[in-house]
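Follow-up to my post from last week.
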Amino acid sequence: MAKKKKKAAIKKAAEEKSAKIRADFLTDRVVTEISDEARELFNQSRYGTQLDSGKIQLSLIEALYLMEKGKIEIYKTKNKQFKPEEFIKKAKKLEPNFWVRYCVFRDIRNRGYIIKTALKFGADFRVYDRGIKPGEDHARWIIYPVYEGSTLTWHEFAGKNRVAHSTRKRLLIGVVDDENDVSYWECRWIRP
Amino acid sequence: MAKKKKKAAIKKAAEEKSAKIRADFLTDRVVTEISDEARELFNQSRYGTQLDSGKIQLSLIEALYLMEKGKIEIYKTKNKQFKPEEFIKKAKKLEPNFWVRYCVFRDIRNRGYIIKTALKFGADFRVYDRGIKPGEDHARWIIYPVYEGSTLTWHEFAGKNRVAHSTRKRLLIGVVDDENDVSYWECRWIRP
Amino acid sequence: MAKKKKKAAIKKAAEEKSAKIRADFLTDRVVTEISDEARELFNQSRYGTQLDSGKIQLSLIEALYLMEKGKIEIYKTKNKQFKPEEFIKKAKKLEPNFWVRYCVFRDIRNRGYIIKTALKFGADFRVYDRGIKPGEDHARWIIYPVYEGSTLTWHEFAGKNRVAHSTRKRLLIGVVDDENDVSYWECRWIRP
Amino acid sequence: MAKKKKKAAIKKAAEEKSAKIRADFLTDRVVTEISDEARELFNQSRYGTQLDSGKIQLSLIEALYLMEKGKIEIYKTKNKQFKPEEFIKKAKKLEPNFWVRYCVFRDIRNRGYIIKTALKFGADFRVYDRGIKPGEDHARWIIYPVYEGSTLTWHEFAGKNRVAHSTRKRLLIGVVDDENDVSYWECRWIRP
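User reply:
Got it. Predicted complex:
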């Protein structure tokens, strides 16, 4: 019995150790291994895109988020993992707006929303209502992440609102402050 | 009967004569004479503030609006009236944002709202719902009038919104374009 | 006869001298005197907006353009004119994007198009086809003026295109180089 | 009759067996065996380049596309095939922009266009109108594939357009988003 218990303990420890999904950094994205856990990332939580191979392709933003949550480990070579700081540095080089977009992505995800790219709509992100998954219903908001110190012209502001209006979504402006906190303003064009 | 007619004619002539309320320019505001018509400006349409003397004190913006509507005549000296252009020039010197603020005031008034200063709320104007007069209910919006060519940091944008939020009003941004037309965006702080 | 001729010559010289329309700088715009020449600016060439007084209100961009063309003189006080450099400095302070927008405005005007604000459409400018005046037909393009050294995110690019698409206008990007020359690219979203 | 049937059966089996063309990975490209099927890839569908030997040389992108379509098998050694994921990883190491370029190539091919490298034009790809093969007519577009998170200066944007203009082709910008979907914008330099 003691032996059996020990075996179970070893197995459990091994499972815990391997609880993190392996993912490989590939130039400008991150691709997971094929596993039930990886599939769950996509099926349950709607991270990334499922490739034909069954692997999940994550954006750099999604990858950092899952790394910080302890869900994945990102490998730069076969045996060498990225440290978070190192990964952020890499990502910032590849995507100049990485950090401001990441802050908003993280905050929205932490609040329980699914957030995906909105390039096709002419915006940064689209956000689904709580409990809604992409495909089940339309996104509720499009989000523009900005730094609080950056400048806004009224022409740009008008443009962002028009994009939201033309896609029948609400406009959410996510302003990231010096402490990486995000405040949100919902804006809409009205004729009083 | 003839007497009655005559009386009516006299009354009408008096009305016509007194159709324009006399108002005097006093350094940085405009004060009306004491008359029923002047009182009506305040009681009915909520222009200005009633002074203890019974005169109505108008802001420069209100005064220009009423002058352009043909309701008042503004005197710079005992016998000399301001021409509109002259008054605008004077007002612009006294208040650097006079024109952009006036464009928004005029547009909102023309749309049938009562609009008053919101200095004590830390904002430009407060606007009451159609049919609502100050005192009857809270203002619905505070308005921030800006010129399309000007810019803002998101930090400043957040500040304007905070003012609105703390006074439990909605923020309306009124952007005046080069053709003096005003476009409006309603913004509100949300915690998604 | 000689006397008559002399008189005529003096009159003509005076006319030429006064050929320039007087305009006053008022905080953030420029307003012309009332004259046939000023009215022509608006009626014929569609500069500015006509005020109720008959004066023409010009944007800072329009004012500089007309000053450089020798059509107007801009006064900062009753007797003191702006020098072009001085006016540009003032305008840049009031409108941080003044210069890049001015370069595009000037270039488009020089090419024979009428160009007006497009704030209502969510863009900087709208441009009418040659020979078309505002009101006669819809604008053909909306224009975004940018500096060649500034950076473009694809989300912003997608947004600008969507604004144009939703307003049924073509998108023209006007890129201003170090020598203030402007190059244009017409862009549209397609499904190949 | 039986003979005829048998012959047909043998032919069919042969076809099925040879359905997948063998191709070998050679440092940075892939070269097919000599076969009618391989030749068809080039003659009919215009994949790759025909070598003097009669073999077809494929780019890494073409090779992955044909592997995913089940047309070819890629061998890393005499007997060992690449798995798709393995091949992608290899290709990404060799070509940093492999994935974004592959996404655009695949999308354009799937839409029924022939797409070839445009290295000699100073661009990524050239694309022929539907039904047009290289040699029959000029390419219609050159395509610039980019990832949505990347940025560009307008100077670089102008450069891409100049390349297209100087080769008398239109520029198509293909922006790959986090879901591997591609959006297209057609741009052209104009002198308004």
